[in-house]
Design goal:
Helix 2 runs antiparallel to helix 3. The protein is mostly helical. It contains 3 helices and no strands.
Length: about 60
C-alpha cells in the first residue's frame, strides 16, 4: 500500500516528482548514499530544466 494512502495525504501535501524520486533513491540499500544524493540532484536539475522549457530535449548541433 502506498504511504500516501496509508496516511491519507491530500493533493496539497503530496511530494513533487523530484522529491519523491529522491526519497526512493536515498532509501535504496543498493546505492551508496553519496551516489543516491548525486542522482537525486541530477534528477532535480533535469526536471527543473525540462519542466520550464517546452518539454523537448535540445539537440546539440
Amino acid at each position: 500500500m502506498p504511504p500516501a494512502k496509508l496516511f491519507g495525504t491530500t493533493d496539497k501535501n503530496q511530494l513533487d516528482t523530484p522529491e519523491a524520486i529522491a526519497i526512493q533513491l536515498r532509501a535504496d540499500k543498493n546505492l551508496d548514499p553519496a551516489i543516491a544524493n548525486a542522482l537525486a540532484s541530477l534528477v532535480n536539475a533535469a526536471y527543473r530544466d525540462l519542466s520550464q522549457s517546452d518539454g523537448e530535449l535540445k539537440q546539440d548541433p
